[in-house]
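FORM 7B: Structural annotation worksheet

SECTION A. Query
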Amino acid sequence: MNISMYQASVPRLINGLTNLSHLLGKAQAHAEAKKIDPVVFTNMRLYPDMLPLSRQVQIACDVSKGFVARLVGVEIPTHEDTEKDLKDLQARIAKTIAFIETFTPAQIDGTEDKDIVVKRGDKETHYKGMQFLLGHCLPNLYFHTTTTYSMLRSGGVEIGKSDYLGKI
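SECTION B. Predicted structure
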């Protein structure tokens, strides 16, 4: 049995982002129960030289929407990085999921060998579609989700592995 490019990407991205939103919801509930300003969590860092939680979530969204847009050959939606609290971050995740859900298997299947070029400043990185998914997109989504999970857990939010994994 073969797994299609669509099956390997879109449902996994939606699942990961949904789980990330769930983690933020647990943090919001924790903040409300403990009378903590939820902005404390959005500004949280594991170490001073690391990006804050808000940026971790923004990057997870950007990587996910950017992957699908590049694969299909459409403009990557721009989301301003202005989220101030956990609810704003959840709204960003919801917008990202809504964008990803607009694509069909017919648009994504067969793109395993599509040439993808990612530009960061003066640097270009070249990928094939499947390499971009497995070597860049999914690892980045999981890295930033795991980092968010770790920040929230270290901040006392009662979350566990089942919250991270969600419904597989």
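SECTION C. Observations
The chain has one domain: 5-165. The beta strands are 115-120, 123-128.

SECTION D. Sign-off
Analyst initials: ____
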